[in-house]
Amino acid sequence: MIKKWIYYTSIAVVVAFISLGFKSSKPENLDWFYVSSNEESLHLFPSLEEEEYTYFNFPFTGKTFTGFKEALAFKESQGRYRLINSLGYMGKYQFGMSALRAIGIHNSTEFLNNPRMQEKAFKALLAKNKWELREEIEKYEGKVVNGVKVTESGILAAAHLGGAGSVKKFFRNEGKRSIKDNYGTSLKSYMKAFGGYDTSFIVANSNAKIKM
Fold it and tell me: In terms of DSSP bridges, do strands 148-149 and 144-145 run parallel, antiparallel, or are they unpaired?
């Protein structure tokens, strides 16, 4: 009985000794750790109020080509591959059938159900428009036309909206003539909104076609 009492007492002493090893004999007030009385934590999560949250568009693509195509796609369709608008324009980048035929696509159903085809079609149309507008790009890039600084990506975005012919007309009139699509969106607004992106790797090609 005595041996058992000594055994348990020894364990208690050892545990107490170890515990003291983790305690500071002189507790310090770490100012960086404590919140002062005038600092309040007012954020409770989750909240039903949407405005209390900050939304980011990930990934941060900046002025890269990915940034360009995704920004344009969001404007056109909110990035929806299967969207058909009231005028019959289709897909993520809102193609009309005439534009699709020009780059070798004749099956609209297949186009709508094939995201990979839509991405290739977008690049092919850029290549074709870059060829058709090569003189305008060379002449006006970096200049200011009717309050808009002209860039290659802005020209290509405007061509996507209204066609290369409308962009040529825009420059012939020094940007003073308002050219708009059927929904009232102006070429000038696209040239401004989508300016400054890197579209340099798109190679101008008068006969650009997609290959699946």
Answer: antiparallel
